[in-house]
Predict the 3D structure of the following.
Amino acid sequence: MVPAAPRPRCLGAYSGGQRLRYQVAATAETDKEAPVRLLQAKMRDAERLLAARLLPELGAGLLLCDGPRPLLGADRRVLGYIKTVHSQRLPRPALDVVRALQAGERSPLYLVGSGEGARFEWYLRLRDPGAWAHTLAGSVRLQAHAGPEPRQQLEWARSVADWSCTVLPRFATRSYQDPRAPQQLLPVRAMEQTLRRRLGSAPLLRRRVVAALTRGRVSP
């Protein structure tokens, strides 16, 4: 007989008049960044599962994911939308092209990776930065599937990149709407506001989670 898998342990707390349950997770790594990496990995898994659920209802549309493109195989309808660039892989001449982009302009496409995980990337300037801002301000990086035969996907990827120049700047926020403007898109901002209303006060929820942990209220 195969032993049953252990049930995940959960932490319960109340907020917004509803009971919330958090699944407890642990990592064997011991450095101080390990919990953050584990949380980000679980977040990416949840985003991938949500994207997979949405694709059957998408038809011929595009699924723009807030963050790196989820690993969903060769479905080219899935795009990544990266607001913050933590590391720069472009050589200096290409980076100079990106820095010179005007509002609504994009960089040429470039290929990242190889095999099934290969993807096209390009930069898009949503809005011209202020004179005091750094040269990539107002820019985002987008990702599209390339796969093991990127030449077959190139024309399609170019058409999507051109589409992004026409459509996405219209949804860019302004500084009085969101501190992450213009990279934060209005639909994403509206979704985050709705989620915050449904979850209730974040400081209050945090205090209740800490109190539940302190009292050891973790159950299967």
Remarks:
- The chain has a mean pLDDT of 86.
- The helical segments are 34-54, 92-99, 150-167, 186-199, 202-214.
- Residues 9-57+202-220 form one domain.
- The longest strand covers residues 119-125.
